[in-house]
Amino acid sequence: MRDPGHDDLRQALQALQAALRPHTAADWDVPAGTLDWTCRDTAAHIAHDLTAYAGQLAAAPDDAYLPCDLTVRPEATTAQLLQIITAAGGLLATALAAADPALRAWHWGPCDPSGFAAMGMAETLLHTHDITRALDPAWRPPADLAALILHRLFPDAPTGDPADVLLWCTGRGDLPGRAHRTQWSWRAARG
C-alpha cells in the first residue's frame, strides 16, 4: 500500500465538511463523543493541529514543535470554524505538496511528509467522528482513507474493516475478540 499525501488529506477535509456542514445550527457546546472537549473545542483542535503540522513541514525543526498556537476567537460561528479548518487543512496540503519526500521534521522524532499527511488525516477524521457522536452518530471515517492512516501510523494494526480497526486502534471502538484500548499511540516518525 502507498503512503498518504496531500490529495488524501484534501479528501479527508472534504469528508469532514460533508459530515459537519449540515449541522452548523446544532449545539456545538455539547461533549464530542467521549472526549472532555465540546464539539466546538474539538473542531478548533483539528484546525490547530493541521496548522501545527504545516508549520513543522515549512520550518523543518529537528528537535521540538514550534512554540506557537492557533487561537479561534470566541465569537467565531460554527460555519466560520469550518472555514478555519479548511484554511488550516489547505496550508498543510500545500506544504505537503511542496515538501521534498526526503524532508524530515520533528514529531517525537524525525517525521517524513507522509507521516504528517497521515496525522493530518487522522486528526481530521477521528475528531470528525468524535463530533458526529453528538451530531450524526451514523457517520464513519471513509474506509479507503482509514486504510491509508492504518498503513502509515499503525503498521501492526489487525486486519478487518479499516474504519472499525482505526476506531479500535485509537480507543474509539471495539473489535471482536480484542480488549478495548484505553491507551494508544501512533508511529509517525521515520528515520
From TrEMBL:
Pfam families per record: MDMPI_N
Domain of life where this protein originates: Bacteria
Domain Mycothiol-dependent maleylpyruvate isomerase metal-binding, first and last residues per copy: 9-131
InterPro entries per record: DinB/YfiT-like, MDMPI_metal-binding
A molecular function (GO) term: metal ion binding
Protein name: Mycothiol-dependent maleylpyruvate isomerase metal-binding domain-containing protein
Organism lineage: Bacteria, Bacillati, Actinomycetota, Actinomycetes, Micromonosporales
